[in-house]
Design a protein that fits this description.
Helix content: 40-55%
Order of helices and strands: HHHHHHEEEEEEEEHEEHHHH
Mean pLDDT: 93
Strand content: 15-25%
Shape: globular
Oligomer: single chain
Number of strands: 10
């Protein structure tokens, strides 16, 4: 496999590394010591810095002021973000911007420059009503006569749970099912009449919300009805989550290596003990598998290259490895750190919380194994 990245992709990664170099994982109170969310809002200064480095417009088409790059560049940036536990809706806004850029109409396109400048924050709803049912079935979109309200043609009803930073976002991009059985995307302001936000707290201590919609009105310019828009959004969110997990796992492996090299028992660094070396080697294999499957999925998604199985199969494999791999990496790190790994003055417990959040986000490994099995069962064979 050739994992050589283009100059533009490498430039995005280098810019992200420079931006995130000043970010501390300990920038907010510990989730282990905080009742409720660790902070009311995401990291706004970091968000402004990302906008200034043109990292919020990577996936936006050039005609809308973006770089026109694809999932590979986004995953490179997200890997850097995961290493420092960056508290920003970078994945959600970038994925939404990419879909709006490729599938949205002219009215939607006018707002994309604002997204690139960090002035318009978009989050996404992809967990469905309970976190276990399909997200596209959680909300209905009913077309109505526009005569009742100027410019209004749709009514939205339903619930989406676990929406990241919903109270901080300017728009929520969510899937909805029409009466004809089509899935559309609605771009809804969280302060619109009929929208309710019930606070939720994620495993890593971030402020989420359950978004309820009760006869929420939406205009034609707020719905993306193009075929494949929801599928593209879901795929981008899944590979992006896998990239964040790779970043978390990479940082944890680095922390564990540094600790095992310095920590001595019986007069020798524990890194020289065979039992420690074997566990570290197993986790290195996990990280390399996470990396290989991630780039395969992102490349398929970006290039549209054909394969024996649909691109969703590669994405499922990447998420399976991301979920299982990052869990094993942090568990081994906790074991090798001993009691020090549970010290709330040390960052490892934060990475553990983020790893658990990413493991379960958009479905755990078992859910993607089931989806992969369905694809294998329905794939034509020679």
């Amino acid at each position: 496999m050739d994992f050589t990245f283009t100059e533009e992709q490498q430039a995005a990664e280098e810019a992200a590394r420079a931006v995130f170099s000043g970010v501390s994982p300990d920038g907010v109170p510990s989730p282990a010591l905080t009742r409720g969310a660790v902070a009311e809002d995401f990291d706004r200064p970091l968000w402004a810095t990302l906008a200034g480095a043109d990292l919020l417009s990577l996936l936006i088409a050039p005609e809308h002021g973006g770089a026109g790059l694809g999932p590979l560049a986004l995953c490179l940036v997200l890997r850097e973000a995961g290493q420092v536990l960056a508290r920003v809706p970078l994945l959600e806004t970038s994925a939404a911007a990419a879909v709006l850029s490729s599938h949205g109409g002219p009215a939607v396109g006018k707002s994309l420059p604002q997204v690139g400048r960090g002035e318009l924050v978009i989050t996404t709803a992809a967990s469905g009503r309970t976190g276990h049912d399909p997200a596209e079935l959680a909300v209905t979109a009913r077309e109505v006569d526009a005569s009742g309200a100027a410019g209004t043609r749709w009514v939205l009803d339903g619930t989406q749970t676990a929406v990241p930073w919903a109270r901080s976002a300017d728009r929520v991009l969510l899937p909805a099912r029409t009466e004809k059985g089509h899935t559309v995307l609605a771009l809804v302001p969280p302060d619109r009449p009929g929208v309710t936000l019930a606070d939720q707290v994620s495993t890593n201590g971030e402020r989420y919300a359950e978004v309820g919609l009760d006869s929420v009105r939406a205009g034609d310019d707020e719905l993306i009805t193009a075929e494949g828009a929801w599928e593209r959004l879901r795929r981008l969110l899944t590979v992006g989550t896998s990239a964040l997990a790779l970043g978390v796992g990479t940082a944890v492996a680095r922390m564990t290596s540094a600790y095992a090299t310095k920590r001595e028992q019986f007069g020798h660094p524990i890194a020289t003990f065979q039992a420690v070396a074997v566990q570290a080697a197993d986790r290195y294999i996990d990280l390399r598998a996470m990396e290989a499957t991630l780039w395969q999925a992102a490349w398929r998604l970006e290039s549209g290259a054909a394969g024996e199985l649909p691109v969703d199969a590669d994405i499922a494999v990447a998420k399976i490895w991301a979920s299982e791999g990052v869990r094993r990496v942090v568990q081994t790190a906790q074991h090798l750190h001993g009691g020090f790994g549970a010290d709330t003055g040390y960052a490892l417990h934060r990475y553990h919380a983020w790893a658990k959040q990413l493991e379960l986000s958009l479905g755990p490994a078992a859910a993607h194994e089931e989806a992969l099995g369905d694809l294998l069962a329905t794939c034509p064979t020679d």
